Amino acid sequence: MEDLQYYIDDPFTFSGKQDLFSEAKVVFFGVPLDVTASFKKGTHQGPNAIREASKEIESYNQMTERDPVEETKIHDLGNLWITPGNLKETLDRIKGFTSKLLAKNKIPFMLGGEHTSSLPVIKALHEKHPDLVVVHFDAHADLKDEYKGDKTMHASFMRRVLEFLPKDQLMQIGVRSLDTEENEFIKSNDINTFFIDVAKQTDLDTLLDEVKRDVEGFTQNKPTYITFDIDCLDASIAPGTGTPEPNGLTYNQAAGLIKSIRGNVVGCDMMEVCRDKEMLTPTVATKLIFKMLELIK
């Protein structure tokens, strides 16, 4: 573990649990990056807000009679250092750190922080697993080629991912805010995208069942990365985020979609969380993290 330490700031622990690093299957780390935000600032507080909430919430699931925190060996390494004014150096650091975790056969679980940080994690995982599939929960497609002249930022990171990840290895869920260029890109490249606002104009429950079956087939027996932007949820239950959007998924809908993932989960993240007044958003994020941990075998 010594070769990882120079990346890390003072440690905080998820759920108040800290198994030995050598025994841990899942390794949490925070990336308090908040430099390309185009609306609300505050996602740099996300990693520690999630940790704070996680210490106050029971992780036992009555439906499955499982406690994913107790069942899973986890270790939290704290927050990665952010290099002020140098996004490339920070992203390179995240990729190098993730690659070191993978070399030690750990499953990375990133807490964020703006969504740009997912780019280097997915790249490191794709280098290890060329058949990696990515399940992307988000209110936004994040497929802009550039935004205000910037090609690497939270609104374009998935476009950069698709420069190395085959387009049929991406599924997007919950999208309801995008521009004309992104919509054309999705159509012309046949990106598997579930538009929640369109779905709500039809029989939503039936369509959600179809999406769950699609998720099952898409992830079946494949190395799977789950990247979850909290703004995928409706703003009424997740107001603490960089770009909140109405008309989103409910907690139960999101939890059910996560549960439908059938792949070998090789990494996860929970991104774009801000500390809100009532700590509602970090609390909801924590509960969904518990759902993701239940998938890890």
What is the rounded distance between the termini?
A: 23 Å
The CATH topology assignment is Arginase, Chain A
| Secondary-structure element string | EHHEHEHEHEHEHHEHEH
For the record, the CATH class is: Alpha Beta
Number of domains: 1
Give the integer mean of the pLDDT values.
94
| Annotation field: number of helices | 10
**Which band does the percent of strand residues land in?**
15-25%
Estimated radius of gyration: 17 Å
Shape: globular
Roughly how much helix do the residues carry, as a percent range?
25-40%
How are the strands ordered across the major sheet?
2-1-3-8-7-4-5-6
From the 3D coordinates, which CATH architecture would you assign?
A: 3-Layer(aba) Sandwich
For the report, how would you describe the main beta sheet?
8 strands, parallel
Please identify which CATH superfamily we are dealing with.
Ureohydrolase domain
How many strands in all? 8
Low-confidence stretches: none
How is the quaternary structure best described?
single chain
What does this structure look like?
The structure is a single chain. This protein is of the alpha/beta class. 34% of the residues lie in helices and 16% in strands. The protein has one domain (2-295): Arginase, Chain A (3-Layer(aba) Sandwich). It is built from 10 helices and 8 strands. Helix 3 (87-103) packs parallel to helix 4 (118-128).
